Every structure is written in C-alpha cells, then in structure tokens.
Amino acid sequence: FLPSEYSIGCHKGITSLGLLLLQFDEMLKDGLKIDSFVVSSLLGVLSNLMYLELGKQFHAQTIKTGLEFDLTIGSSLVTMYSKCGNTGDSDSQKVFDLLCATNVVSWTAKIAGYAQNGQGLEALQTFEQMLGKDIEPDAMTFVGV
C-alpha cells in the first residue's frame, strides 16, 4: 500500500515529467520498495509521453534490480518500446522474447504495438501466434487486431 502522496499509478493524467520524477525520487528517499506496480506505472507514463531514452534508463534499472523478467514490467516495456516506434526485431521484440512466461496482456501489448505503428500484417500474424499458444484473447486484444 502506498500512502496518498505516492500516487504515481493512480494519476494516469500526469503530463509533467518533472512531477513524475519528483514523486519517484521522494519514494526512493523515503525508502519505499520499488515494485512491479510502481515501475510499470512509470513506464506507462513514459510511454504515453514517448520518452524513449528515459524509458530505456528505467529498463536498465529493472535489469539491475532483477525485475526485468516480471511479466507486468515486461508487458509495460513492450508497450513503451512499441509506442515509441520500436517494434519488430528491436527492443520491444527482445523484451517479449526474454519473458519467462506470457499471457494475454503481454501478447496484446505486442499486437497493439504493431497496429499502432502501421504494421497490420505483423499484428495479425502475432494474433495467430497467440492463438496457437492457446491464449484466449480479450476485448483489448481485439482492439489491437
């Protein structure tokens, strides 16, 4: 549970990078554990703002802290790289390939990434691969397709 002053994940409307980083810095100073929820929330904001370089820095931090293989963070990284135009054989694909397990969220992140970057054929092919792995699509998957 995060006290109300640490509301990074609750404010999807954050558009000030300075505010985001200030809140994150305060959390670190106060000794709060940085977990998958916090990191994926930060990556979500960075991907919406298309701050690829800062996103890469947070990705490096996940590697240092051993959170890189966390499914929630992995899906957030796939989304972040995809929203910044890195699909295919790039960082988005590499992160996806490193996930120890996948689920509908990680597959949907990959599909949506292709779709958002005008790669409709790749999105459909990825959807077929997902179905081949017996993963049931959800409503968000169909939005991506």
UniProtKB/TrEMBL annotation:
Keywords assigned: Repeat
PANTHER family noted in UniProt: PENTATRICOPEPTIDE REPEAT-CONTAINING PROTEIN (PTHR47926)
Ranges for the PPR repeats: 103-137
Pfam family, one: PPR_2
Lineage per the UniProt record: Eukaryota, Viridiplantae, Streptophyta, Embryophyta, Tracheophyta
Gene Ontology biological process terms in this record: RNA modification
GO MF annotations in UniProt: RNA binding
Species in which this protein is naturally found: Nymphaea colorata
Protein name (record): Pentatricopeptide repeat-containing protein
Ranges that cross the membrane: none
